[in-house]
Backbone:
């Protein structure tokens, strides 16, 4: 069988949620199925680390699909034409978009409907693109995968024609996220937090991650405790990041806030594992990989009580209204004052993280590949 794969998010040092999900699954599927031939389609120069085995052929197809006109052209014309000669049995689309012109059966992954739930947090042209094309993508796809029951219900409610047609295949923590020893923790704290304990927020600096309310909560926490605790934002400057940078110029505790920029996987893993606690207060998430990764690293999590995050964290995290800085600060204070509770949350987190497993995820994904080919 020849399997075409949209690989445009597999870019070295640029992997985030969608990219990590695709990377972990595809790596396992390619290596577990050496009898099948995979065609990885990139839209720009690619790194050989993503050519997981000898049964992968990589092709580069222009233009780089990173804005609306290029999306439309790449999916429907250039990429669709480029793969025809390989005669694939299926085209895997891991990033929410698919081709509307190809006759090849497509397996579509839609992580969430953030464009409906967080309308003010993406640009107007992307908003238009998602609103107009998402129902078309969902109708065109042979089969649909999402990452949580929350996202499944959101998709089926918004687009009733998808009911009973969406399969849930969740992500997991990368194996490299694990506890580190005391000496390593001290080295990380010295390098990033002046030797002090810190809360960590993992994710790109953008309105969707709700960092303004995290800053307000941190102000309250500092006011209540006068501690040396730091706040570390671990992620790249993403869309519309200027507001938070402007806020930091006059922020009372700006000397206690650290912006790391994009980190290598190894650094992010260590920075997560050395944290006092992880704050994940996004306004909307279909899943939220950093929640599971912090748990697996032995770090207690305080998450937003919205969208798919409670489904991921279960009873192994503390929750707060992400729009209420005082409630967030109260949970930060609770962990800070009650070490016994913190230890309980850490232990529950280890158990919760074990319920998510990339090998199981990849096996389920392969099952959907086979089902998609059979349907066609």
Residues:
């Amino acid at each position: 069988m020849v399997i075409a794969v949209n690989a445009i998010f597999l870019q070295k040092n640029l992997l985030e949620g969608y990219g990590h999900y695709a990377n972990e699954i595809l790596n396992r599927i390619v290596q577990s199925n050496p009898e099948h031939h995979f065609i990885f389609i990139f839209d720009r120069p690619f790194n050989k680390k993503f050519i997981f085995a000898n049964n992968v052929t990589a092709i580069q197809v222009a233009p780089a699909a990173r804005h609306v006109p290029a999306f439309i052209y790449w999916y429907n014309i250039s990429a669709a034409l480029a793969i025809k000669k390989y005669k694939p049995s299926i085209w895997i689309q891991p990033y929410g978009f698919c081709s509307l012109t190809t006759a090849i059966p497509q397996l579509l992954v839609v992580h969430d409907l953030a464009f409906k739930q967080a309308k003010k947090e993406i640009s107007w042209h992307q908003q238009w693109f998602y609103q107009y094309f998402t129902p078309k993508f969902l109708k065109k796809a042979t089969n649909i995968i999402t990452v949580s029951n929350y996202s499944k219900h959101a998709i089926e409610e918004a687009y009733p024609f998808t009911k009973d047609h969406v399969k849930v295949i969740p992500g997991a923590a990368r194996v490299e996220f694990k506890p580190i020893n005391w000496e390593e923790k001290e080295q990380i704290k010295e390098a990033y937090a002046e030797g002090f304990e810190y809360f960590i927020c993992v994710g790109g600096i953008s309105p969707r991650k709700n960092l303004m309310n995290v800053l307000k909560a941190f102000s309250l926490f500092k006011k209540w405790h006068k501690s040396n605790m730091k706040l570390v934002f671990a992620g790249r400057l993403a869309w519309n990041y200027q507001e938070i940078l402007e806020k930091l110029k006059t922020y009372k505790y700006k000397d206690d806030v650290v912006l790391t920029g994009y980190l290598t996987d190894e650094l992010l893993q260590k920075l997560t594992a050395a944290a006092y606690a992880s704050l994940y207060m996004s306004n909307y998430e279909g899943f939220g990989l950093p929640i599971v990764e912090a748990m697996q690293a032995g770090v207690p999590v305080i998450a937003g009580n919205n969208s798919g995050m409670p489904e991921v964290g279960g009873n192994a995290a503390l929750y707060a209204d992400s729009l209420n800085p005082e409630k967030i600060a109260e949970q930060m204070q609770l962990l800070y004052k009650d070490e016994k509770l913190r230890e309980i949350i850490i232990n529950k987190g280890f158990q919760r993280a074990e319920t998510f497993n990339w090998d199981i995820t990849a096996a389920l994904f392969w099952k959907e590949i086979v089902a998609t080919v059979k349907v066609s």
